[in-house]
Amino acid sequence: MDSDQVAMLREVLSATGWLERTGEFARALRLSARDPGGLLLVGTPGEDPWHMAAHLDDESRLHDLPTLAPTLVRWSPPPDAPPHLKVGLERLEAARRGEALFVVAEEDAPVPLLERVDDARRTGVTILALDGGDKELTGLAHEALTVPARDALLSFDGAQHLVSAAAAAPLDRRRGLRDRLARILDKVSGPVPD
User: Fold this and answer.
1) Which one in 27, 39, 54, 95 has a CA-CA gap of 20 to 30 Å to 167?
2) Rounded to whole angstroms, how far apart are CA atoms 44 and 112?
3) Domain spans of the chain?
4) How far apart are the C-alpha atoms of 3 and 22, rounded to whole Å?
5) Which of 171, 162, 148, 153 is nearest to 10 (CA)?
C-alpha cells in the first residue's frame, strides 16, 4: 500500500472513529520505547509480523525516528539468518523497563505467548497489542487496538498500515495531563452514552 492508498483509506474511514483509535494507539506505540532497539515486535508461532516490521522500519528511517524501528522477535529463527532476523524469544526474557513489546496477532495468542507477555509486563515492559479480538491479550496490554474480523470497514492489514503511518506523524504537543486523564477516565468508566 503506497501513501496515496493510505490517504484514500484515511478519507474513507474519516467518519468511523477508526482514525482516532489508530492514531491514539500509534501515539502510544511511538512513545513506548525509550531507546533504539527497544521496540520488540512479536507475532504468533505461525505468523511473524513481517508486514508491520517492514512498515515501522520504513517510517523510522524516513522520519528519523530510531525508537520506532522494531526488533523483530521470531519463534523459530533459522541459525543461518542474518543477525536482525535471528532474534529469538530469549530477547523477551531480557526485556526491561523502558522497552516495549508490541504483539501483532490477528488470531488468538497461544498460552506460551500470553505467558511471555505477562512475564515482560511484570518486569516493567510496556505492552501493546494489535489483535483480532483476543480478550486475554487485550487484558495484558497497556494499550490495545482490536480489529474484529467481522468489521467490514477495516481489515487487519489495513489497520497495520494506518498504525504504522500514524506512528510517524508529528506529535500534537498540546495533549497534556488533562487529555491523558480524560482518556483514563473513559477507559475506566466506559464511553459516554449518546
Assistant:
1) 95
2) 10
3) 3-189
4) 16
5) 162
